[in-house]
User: Which sequence fits this backbone?
C-alpha cells in the first residue's frame, strides 16, 4: 500500500531532534510520497537538505506563505522566481490568503497570491493554496485566474459543501487532513457527497495531528489515521483510499 502526504513541513524546527527517524517511520508505514511546501526564503536551504536525505521520497514546492508576506515581500517573490528558474519543483506553494493572524498586509497578500499564480502558469506547475479566514478573498482571485492552465490543491480544506464545489470548479483538489478526524471538524458530514476523484490526503505536519494524536506533534506516518477516517466516510477499504488518493496526487503533481 502506498500513501501520499501531499502537504508536510518535514523541514520544521519541530523535527530538529529526530527528523530522519520520523521520515523513515513514515516510509516504513507506506507513506513513501512526501510533498513539502515552502514558507519563505529562510527555509529554502533546509528544504533541499531534506530532499537530499530522501531523494526518492521527498518532493519540494517553492512559494511565499501568506503569513510571511511583509514589507519585503517583493524581494521574497524575487527569490521564489529565481528558485523556480534554477531548480525542479513539483508546485508553487504554499500560497494564498490568511486573515486570521493579521490583516495588515491584505493588499500585499493579494498581490503576492496573484503574482505566484502567474509564476505557476509560466512554469506549468500546480499551486498549493493556504486559506484561513479568507474564503471570499481567495475565491475572488481564483475565479479571476481560473482556466485550463490553473490547477492544484486547496490545502487543509475546512470549508462548507458549497465552498468545496467552488474550489473543485476552480481546478483544485481538496487536501483533507487531521481536521476530518475531529469531532467538531464538520467536513466529515458532507465529504461523501464529493467524488473521491477530488480528494488528496495531507498531514500538514507538525500541525493539526489527527485523532488519537490531537494536540500532539503531527508527523507524516499519521496519514494512515486520516486514510482510515476517509475510508469510513466513503465506506471503502483503506487500501482503496490509499490507491485512489495517491493516483489523485500524481494527477496534480505529475509525479
Ligand atoms: Zn502548511
Assistant:
Amino acid at each position: 500500500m502506498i500513501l501520499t502526504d501531499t502537504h508536510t513541513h518535514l523541514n520544521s524546527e519541530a523535527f530538529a531532534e529526530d527528523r530522519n527517524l520520523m521520515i523513515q517511520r513514515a516510509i516504513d508505514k507506506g507513506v513513501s510520497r512526501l510533498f513539502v511546501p515552502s514558507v519563505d526564503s529562510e527555509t529554502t536551504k533546509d528544504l533541499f537538505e531534506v530532499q537530499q536525505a530522501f531523494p526518492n521520497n521527498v518532493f519540494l514546492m517553492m512559494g511565499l506563505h501568506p503569513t510571511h508576506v511583509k514589507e519585503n515581500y517583493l524581494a521574497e517573490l524575487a527569490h521564489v522566481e529565481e528558485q523556480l528558474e534554477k531548480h525542479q519543483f513539483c508546485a508553487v506553494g504554499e500560497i494564498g490568503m490568511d486573515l486570521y493572524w493579521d490583516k495588515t498586509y491584505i493588499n500585499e497578500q493579494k498581490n503576492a497570491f496573484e503574482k505566484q499564480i502567474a509564476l505557476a502558469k509560466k512554469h506549468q506547475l500546480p499551486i498549493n493554496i493556504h486559506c484561513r479566514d479568507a474564503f471570499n478573498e481567495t475565491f475572488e482571485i481564483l475565479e479571476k485566474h481560473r482556466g485550463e492552465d490553473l490547477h492544484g490543491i486547496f490545502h487543509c480544506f475546512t470549508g462548507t459543501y458549497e465552498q468545496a464545489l467552488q474550489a473543485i470548479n476552480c481546478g483544485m483538489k481538496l487536501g483533507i487532513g487531521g481536521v476530518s478526524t475531529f469531532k467538531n471538524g464538520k467536513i466529515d458530514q458532507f465529504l461523501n457527497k464529493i467524488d473521491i476523484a477530488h480528494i488528496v490526503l495531507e498531514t500538514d505536519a507538525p500541525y493539526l495531528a489527527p485523532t488519537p494524536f490531537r494536540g500532539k506533534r503531527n508527523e507524516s506516518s499519521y496519514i494512515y489515521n486520516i486514510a482510515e477516517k476517509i475510508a469510513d466516510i466513503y465506506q471503502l477499504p483503506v487500501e482503496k483510499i490509499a490507491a485512489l488518493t495517491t493516483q489523485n496526487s500524481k494527477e496534480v503533481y505529475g509525479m
About this structure: The longest strand covers residues 91-98. The beta strands are 3-5, 31-36, 58-62, 91-98, 127-132, 152-154, 172-176, 199-201. The helical segments are 19-28, 44-53, 73-86, 106-122, 135-145, 161-169, 223-234, 238-253. DSSP finds eight helices and eight strands in the chain.
